[in-house]
Specification:
By secondary structure, this protein is an alpha/beta fold. The protein contains 14 helices and 16 strands. The chain is globular.
Length: 429
């Protein structure tokens, strides 16, 4: 293995991700593990140079103050104890804290600053090959950032031992299914199973208005389709997932309550006889994107806008119809194209269109129309818990309006949503 590692053990701190990122900023790889890591688990971790016992306000679990296992203390590695068993807390000053970290990492642990994407990829390739051997791996490839990066990494590691299944449920953005096929089948020569399930999903969604019901239908049907395709394949022993570290954090740990559940955290159902392969599970989102760039994925796939699991199904408000779904898809494509041309790509956190099911009177070519409006949503946020409306130049909004009303069938108005979160949400469902 090429990278030295500093191991952070969670003993009640809410700042584990922050400390991990600060160590990585020093050029040293770090991972966060539970406080009760076993001797075998510790021994399996490569190139551990030191351990941080990171205590904090959540140090009491089930009425007992937690502590690291004896294996940790007996490992013979340098240990930095912070806010644990009477040890001092981290300095409040950022620079002072970084100095403490630097002194521990480099002076006491003798770690090398060899954390970079090239070394990370090489290490993960080695670990995947060691885990998988000559067995086959299955991946549900949505075309989103996480699954795409996992696919590219696994192709590099095991080539044709990987089978990717891409399910087109008809709710993707314009050009996304075609891009998945072009990048992975044509450019990377992957084993790609393309499933055209558009009619199947849209038939299931016919007449369904309530957004949560839409989500459940789409999620359940996706699992059915994926399982059907998996049964057609022989010799699959592993299931790859695009789990990343924020998924694990938000799903909760032994010392931190869950923010929200993630389907890819917590293992697999007992009836699925697979072993998980999760090469990105210790990366943050920006690091995943950097990994994708290093693996040669196109920028428009790596830096793709955040996208809800049910896709455009939650942006086609009310009961989904094929013509209104197409209006969402085409208007969204125009918005993304014009934002990119104006240099706003990467500067505005999320932007998209939504189309409600009501209509109003308009005029086109001196003829009365009775068509839908398009709603533009553009927001900036740090943590997605709150969001502010992005300041979009009025001239750009006018240009987008002119294009959408001229080019998108069934649209005669364009509206701009000025609502922050709260009181609104980021999505329009």
């Amino acid at each position: 293995m090429k990278q030295d590692m500093i191991l952070i053990l969670d003993l009640g701190s809410e700042e584990n991700p922050k400390i991990a990122r600060e160590i990585r900023a020093l050029g040293v790889y770090t991972e966060i593990n539970a406080h009760d890591i076993t001797a075998a688990e510790l021994a399996a971790l490569p190139n551990v140079k030191g351990i941080i016992l990171n205590g904090g306000p959540n140090r009491v679990v089930d009425g007992v103050e937690i502590d690291a296992s004896e294996a940790v203390y007996d490992a013979g590695l340098p240990i930095l104890s912070v806010d644990h068993k009477g040890s001092p807390a981290w300095p409040a000053d950022d620079e002072a804290r970084k100095e403490v970290l630097s002194q521990f990492v480099f002076d006491e642990c003798k770690a090398e600053a060899n954390w970079n994407m090239e070394n990370f990829i090489n290490d993960q390739v080695e670990l995947v090959r060691r885990q998988v051997g000559d067995k086959k791996v299955l991946l549900a490839l949505s075309g989103g950032v996480d699954s795409s990066v996992v696919a590219a990494l696994l192709i590099k590691a095991i080539g044709k031992q990987l089978t990717c299944v891409h399910v087109n449920h008809g709710l993707l953005r314009k050009g996304e299914p075609e891009q998945v096929v072009e990048v992975f089948r044509n450019q990377m020569d992957a084993n790609l199973v393309y499933v055209d399930a558009v009619d199947r999903f849209l038939d299931k969604l016919e007449g369904v208005e309530e957004p949560e019901q839409k989500r459940k239908i789409i999620g359940a049907e996706f699992i059915r389709v994926f399982e059907e395709e998996a049964r057609k394949l022989e010799g699959i022993k592993f299931l790859a997932q695009g789990t990343i570290y924020p998924d694990i954090i938000e799903s909760g740990t032994k010392t931190v309550k869950a923010v929200k559940s993630h389907h890819n955290v917590g293992g697999l159902p007992e009836d699925l006889d697979f072993e998980l392969v999760e090469p990105l599970k210790m990366l943050f989102k920006d690091e995943v994107r950097a990994c994708g760039v290093a693996l040669g994925l196109p920028d428009d796939m790596v830096y793709r806008q955040p996208f809800p699991g049910p896709g455009l199904g939650v942006r086609c408000l009310g009961a989904i119809t094929r013509d209104r779904l197409e209006a969402v898809r085409e208007s969204d494509a125009i918005l993304r194209e014009e934002f990119a041309a104006a240099g706003l790509e990467g500067k505005v956190w999320q932007y998209f269109t939504a189309v409600p099911e009501f209509k109003s009177v308009g005029v086109r070519d001196n003829v009365r129309t009775y068509d839908w409006p398009v709603i533009i949503r553009a927001v900036n946020t740090v943590d997605a818990m709150t969001a502010e409306v992005a300041d979009i130049p009025f001239a750009l909004l006018q240009k987008i309006t002119a294009r959408i009303t001229a080019e998108v069938k069934g649209i005669n108005r364009v509206l701009f949503d000025l609502t922050p979160k709260p009181t609104g949400t980021i999505e329009w469902e």
